[in-house]
From TrEMBL:
PANTHER family: P PROTEIN. It comes from the Bacteria. Its main location: membrane. It holds the Pfam family CitMHS. Keywords: Membrane, Transmembrane, Transmembrane helix, Transport. The keyword Disulfide bond does not apply. One of its GO terms (cellular component) is membrane. One of its GO terms (biological process) is transmembrane transport. The chain crosses the membrane at residues 40-60, 81-106, 159-182, 207-234, 246-263, 283-306, 312-333, 345-368. Residues 21-304 form the Citrate transporter-like domain. This is Transporter, YbiR family. It is found in: Membrane.
Amino acid sequence: MIQLSIQIWRKDYLLWFLAGLLTVLTIAEPARLFSYPGLVDWPTLSGVAGLLILAKGIELSGYLHRLGKRLIEIMRTSRSLAVLLVLAAALLSMALTNDVALFIMVPLTTGLHGAGVIPVTRLIVVEALAVNAGSALTPIGNPQNLFLWKVSGVSFHEYVQAMLPLALILITSLLVLIAFMFDSNRIQVREEVDMPIANNRLFHSSLILYLPFLILIDLHQAELAVLLILMVFFIRHRSILGNVDWGLILVLALMFVNMRLIADSHTIHSFFTELRLDEPERLYFAGIGLAQIMSNVPAAILLAGYSSNWQLIAYAVNVGGFGLVLGSLANLIALRLARDRKAWLIFHAYSLPFLLVTGTFVYLLLFIG
């Protein structure tokens, strides 16, 4: 197990890129080294760690294979299955945040592989796009919306009303994309494949822990929540902890430190001061572009320091969640959960054109329509 983990980490190119970037930033400003722990968003990191453990428990319990087979029997084609999974992912992201939605949907989707001839990787890619699209609607759908909602001072209803046109464009565009990505041929069910033996104890432990875990997260007790999960799994299901993608936690920690160091640099502040972000079109393109290199959450926080136009910032950074994988934390989580190196290429093959098309539609809505 240890040798396998070392081999995986050696090929984790994103992790090594982020580690190299941090080395360069540390050499440039060595005095900030001791501030690095304070730059990490520990509640988010704790939440992701807990969800990784619970999702792995559900996945390895064997129940998802049975559910997957049932889904295939109901949804006879790849296209209808994709529509169902995408709409489910989008709806879950509106209420449970985009990250939580992925930790529910992606393990379910990977479980489909054993039940039939399914384009699992493409399904996970569109689920990543779906949670970004669905979460754009509500203040609690993603971290950038939650931040901008607090900045705006408007009610929950008013925020949803302001974001509805954007969400409609994104979800409608995604459904059109699905029509091109998936065919209407009947799914071939693998009748000969033996279903894994269900681990009732593991399944029930993982499922039951979801509710108290999410409640503690909502009460801003993420660190306590992950300690609860770790304690239960260490006592009852210790082997599951060895199967968790702990490399993702390290990648996220490096992302937090790197992006906040970059955002706090004098060069960045000087650059954005000269950009004249009081002009709406400049602000829109700055939000999309900035999200591509530092993710949409820090982009929203940074831009809010230069403009009070919270709605335009929200539109820009939510659109910016598409495109490159760094555009949204949800993209990174989905691709790591997919455990398929081809997923990174497939994601960009669809996400970059999706950014171009939806970004154009939103631009027309905001500035031409």
